[in-house]
Amino acid sequence: MALAPLTASRGLRVTLAGAAASALLLTGCAAQDSSATPAEDTTAASEPSLEFAGPNGEVPGALAELELTDEELAEVADGDYTAAFVWHTSGDFVAAVEEGARAEFAELGIEVVASTQANFDAGTQANNVQTVMALEPDIVVAIAVDPTSAAQSFQPILDAGAELVIMTTPPEGYSAGEEFVSIVTEDLAKAGQANAEILGDALGGEGEVGYLSYNANFWFTNQRDESFKDWLAYSYPDIEIVEEQGFADETATQAAAAAMIAKNPNLTGIYVSWATAAQGVLAAIRAAGRDDIQVVTNDLDTTVAAAMMTGSNVAGMVGNGSLDIGAGLARAGAYGLLGKEAPALVASDPTKVTADNLVEGWEADYGVAPPSSVTGG
């Protein structure tokens, strides 16, 4: 029996509501004659696209496109293959992706021999590559901390002939079907739309917000951040982004958010690129004594989720379809072993998670109930 396609059957998928906004009707003020009806100038922000492109212009497909026949499964299982992970950082999201990949590797008969993370440090990741390749894995699942330097630091993977599978961000100059098998990620346009909907609804469709984004060249996060801005402007025209700041180090977000809050006393919301970076934002909000500022971010994180359930400062989070991403990475690795052409880029559907659907959303993204530290149970 063929391995089932990767679909949302791994957990409940919360359907994103389609964004819509009424056109703004502006009454013209140019006089015609005493009997003329005032002219109307109908203008509205253009609806953002739900399309996005990979770092080399790859067009995303669905995770369900990764399928293996019974014969292919048997060939992989008989190969006595091994795999390793070279992550950029740690956290709940990465752990869930790895869990999904490990489960799929187990089904494929592939042994995991190593897992490393680099704390967003390119030098550390280069050392991790050397350490991992000493174990001679057949598949390496990785994400480049710095795409430019990774072009060189990932070279030992290519020299060894291992199959490289990318979560979100490849080294600069690497192409699918050449240096790596495939990119597996989330649907970035839908994720940005989901962030905008969570924050826009939490603010009642009006207010002033801050935008705290990752300012490094990281195509995955850059596109998701921009999608949030586009959908917020389109769906919630009465919400204004009054200040934008970038960060390169997620530990710097507390100071950035503190300055943003001090400068903008009417601030009622903040978008920040991902959840561990949002922890510093929440610390700044608490230090300022503000219980009226709502935060939205990406990834499901226990610290941020606990704050959402016990306080008033977290509007919600957007999950990435983490288990499915992990399973897709492992499946793409099998494609490489078989010499089977894989889609250049495949994407999972994101999940909107608020206090109202925390348990369902957490189970959909991570496959388990949220910990008691989050639910208070």
UniProtKB/TrEMBL annotation:
<keyword id="KW-0732">Signal</keyword>
<dbReference type="GO" id="GO:0030246">
    <property type="term" value="F:carbohydrate binding"/>
</dbReference>
<protein>
    <submittedName>
        <fullName>Sugar ABC transporter substrate-binding protein</fullName>
    </submittedName>
</protein>
<dbReference type="InterPro" id="IPR025997">
    <property type="entry name" value="SBP_2_dom"/>
</dbReference>
<feature type="domain" description="Periplasmic binding protein">
    <location>
        <begin position="84"/>
        <end position="335"/>
    </location>
</feature>
<dbReference type="Pfam" id="PF13407">
    <property type="entry name" value="Peripla_BP_4"/>
</dbReference>
<dbReference type="GO" id="GO:0030313">
    <property type="term" value="C:cell envelope"/>
</dbReference>
<feature type="region of interest" description="Disordered">
    <location>
        <begin position="37"/>
        <end position="57"/>
    </location>
</feature>
<dbReference type="InterPro" id="IPR028082">
    <property type="entry name" value="Peripla_BP_I"/>
</dbReference>
<feature type="signal peptide">
    <location>
        <begin position="1"/>
        <end position="31"/>
    </location>
</feature>
<comment type="similarity">
    <text>Belongs to the bacterial solute-binding protein 2 family.</text>
</comment>
